[in-house]
Amino acid sequence: MTRLIIRNANLYTPLGFKAKCGTEMGNILHVQNAVIVADDGVIVYAGNEAEMPPLSDDADQEIAIDAAGRAVVPGFVDSHTHLIFGGYRPEEFSWRLKGDTYMSIMERGGGIQSTVNATRGMSVREMASKALWFLDRMLEMGVTTVEAKSGYGLDKETELRMLEALRLLAEDEENKVDIVPTFLGAHAVPSEYKGRTGEYVDFLIREVLPEASRLAEFFDIFTEKNVFEIEDSRRMLQAAAASGMKLKLHADEIVQLGGAELAAECRAVSADHLLHVSDAGIKAMAEAGTVATLLPLTAFALKEEYAPARKFIDAGCAVALATDLNPGSCFSGSIPLTIALACIYMKMSVSETLTALTLNGAAAVDRADSIGSIEPGKRADILILHFDTLDALPYYVGMNCVDKVIKNGEPVSV
After folding, report:
1. For residue 182, which phi and psi values (nearest 5 degrees)?
2. Residues ≥6 apart with Cβ < 8 Å to 231
3. Which of 320, 305, 413, 309 lies closest to 368, judged by CA?
4. What ranges in 155-291 are assigned the alpha helix state H?
5. Which of 233, 231, 347, 329 is nearest to 273 (CA)?
6. d(Cα 294, Cα 275) in Å, to the nearest integer?
7. With contact defined as beta carbons under 8 Å apart, do 264 and 285 qualify?
8. pLDDT tens readout for residues 204-226
9. Kind and range of the H or E element at 273?
10. pLDDT tens, residue by residue, 270-305
11. How far apart (Å, rounded) are the C-alpha atoms in residues 252 and 62?
C-alpha cells in the first residue's frame, strides 16, 4: 500500500458526494494546520492534525509532503471542452474583431464546418497526439479531470475516430488527466445535409449512435436556432437516453430558444453556456437538478454578456464552471482566467467559484461521488497552491497559482 501524507496544509474544500446548490455553494471547509492522508489514492483523513486518529502501519511506501502553510484545494474538473480537433481558425478571431457574428462566420464557410474539413483528414493517433499537448497544459493549471467531446467529424467514421482518440488518451500512461468522453455528433448540420436537418438527425440515430454509445459516456447536442431546434433536439436526446447515454446540452447560447427547459425535461446531467437563458429555464433546471455549466471564457472571447450566475445560484441551481476549450469561439483552456472572470464579472464569490470548478464540475460529469472534494472516500486529486490563501486565485488575474498537482495520491510532474 502507498500512503500519501500532506502536513501543514491550509485546507479549503467543499464537502459532499453530490452537487452543491444555491447558497450552499459558498459553504466550504477551511482548516488550518490540516493533515490529509490517502491510502492507495483514496483519502482516509482530512482535517486538523490534533484530531487525526492513529494510522495503520501497513504502508509499503510513504509519500510525505510539507505544504508549509499554503492553500490546498481539490483538483479542478474542466467539465466542458472540445479537446479533439483538426486545424486552427485564427482568421475568424480577426473577423470577430471586425464585427462578424458567430452565425455570419458560419454562413461564409467558417465556424464548425472549417474545423470539420480539417478533422476528417486526421488519424486516431494524430488526434490523440495533438490533444496530449493541451492535456499537459491543463494539468499545469490544476485540471485533474476533463470532459472532452467529439463533434468535428459530423460523419460516422470521423466521429468514431474522435471517440477512439479519447479512449487512446485515457489509456496513455503519458497522460495524467482523467477523460470523460462525450459524443457530440449533433454539433452542427454538415454541408452535405444542408437544408435537411431532420435527415441528418435520422442518420445519427440510425447509423452513428449505436456505435458511439459504446465509446462515449455522455451525449451532447447544440440546441440552437437554425441548427438543432427543440423538436429535433428532443428526438435526439430521447434516442441517446434510450441507448444508455447520459445527457448534456449546449443550450440558449445565442438566442433564447428553450434549451434550458428541454434540458430539465430530459433530466440532463448538465446544460451548458446559457447566456440567454429564461427565468423559466433557470427555475426548471433548479427543480430538475440539472447542473448549469457556465463558460465565461467564451463570452469573453465573443464579447457577449456573461451567463447570469447569480440568478442561477439565487434560484437554488448548481453552477459549474468550465473553459470550453475549442478551436473557434474560445481557443483557451485557461483555468486562471476562468476564475477571474467568474469572480469579477459574474459576481461569484471565491468560495462559490472553487465549488463550481471542483465538486460541481465533478457533478456535471456524474463523478461527484468520487472526486471534487478533499474528504474520506474521495480520490486524492489535490492541488497545493503557491500561496497561503484561497483569495489568491482571482487576485493573480490570469496567472497560474498551482504549485503541485497530486493525482490519485501521487505527485505528478508538470
Report:
1. -130, 135
2. none
3. 320
4. 156-171, 197-203, 209-212, 230-242, 259-265, 279-288
5. 329
6. 8
7. yes
8. 999 999 999 999 999 999 999 99
9. strand 270-273
10. 999 999 999 999 999 999 999 999 999 999 988 899
11. 49
